[in-house]
Structure of choline-phosphate cytidylyltransferase:
Amino acid sequence: VANRNTTSEEVSAKGKFTLTAPAPFADETNCQCQAPHEKLTIAQARLGTPADRPVRVYADGIFDLFHSGHARALMQAKTLFPNSYLLVGVCSDDLTHKFKGFTVMNEAERYEALRHCRYVDEVIRDAPWTLTPEFLEKHKIDFVAHDDIPYSSAGSDDVYKHIKEAGMFVPTQRTEGISTSDIITRIVRDYDVYARRNLQRGYTAKELNVSFINEKRYRFQNQVDKMKEKVKNVEERSKEFVNRVEEKSHDLIQKWEEKSREFIGNFLELFGPDGAWKQMFQERSSRMLQALSPKQSPVSSPTRSRSPSRSPSPTFSWLPLKTSPPSSPKAASASISSMSEGDEDEK
């Protein structure tokens, strides 16, 4: 593990390392290239030469509202060659306001943003708008990395023209869809939204440069939005409650249908045409009919043997003490007729 105070040669020898501190400033570090600085070609640098030092690559810019497009450009500059040391120049507020326009972040904030980018090895404060031979020699710069779109500024059609002619320019690719101008455009387009947001977060109208009337209007809109949000929450809760009631009702109806089918099935099994109740009724009816129908009784009893010492006793027929009731009128009439015939025989 190496810290940010090591020299460029030591960093090159150790290769990849874990970052434990922000990148140093060029005017506050001893990170100087001590090896003989011979001029390199791009082909030589791509082969990993020279072996005794890293290739020193320089990238510059304003880096206002540091974003992923900036980081990707620096990543490309860092990985142009197998062994490279990336120096990043950041222009001051005076130069930027003079040649490009007002910035959102001041120079100190922009310097710090670059120091904490993982691809940056060293930050050069107050970088020149146009690179001079003296500046390139002072920082032992081998190549300059930037996108190859001509950058017209400070009375020149392309501030990197002389660098390209010297064979020291290496192009990088811009990231589409993200830039500082795009971010500022979003803020300006939705100015009212962000003004209301910051008022709600506790910023004063004076800090936001908002007039008294606009402040009242924004605060009223915030109250209206709060009411809308409450109504929306109530509606969502009501919908959830209705959905839960519908689900429970559906479950109850489904259970009731299942129980109804079960009850009807049990009823049919018991009272249907072939049900158990019919069979039980038939069995009980047959038992009652058997109980009501008369049994065959003997007409007369067998003759007793006469004793020689006693006189013979008259014979008589045994009548049943108990008779079962007739099962029908016809059976009753038949029983009466048989009894009358028996009386006549006795006579």
In short: Residues 42-178 form a domain with the Rossmann fold fold (CATH 3.40.50.620). The two ends are 146 Å apart (CA to CA). The mean pLDDT is 80.
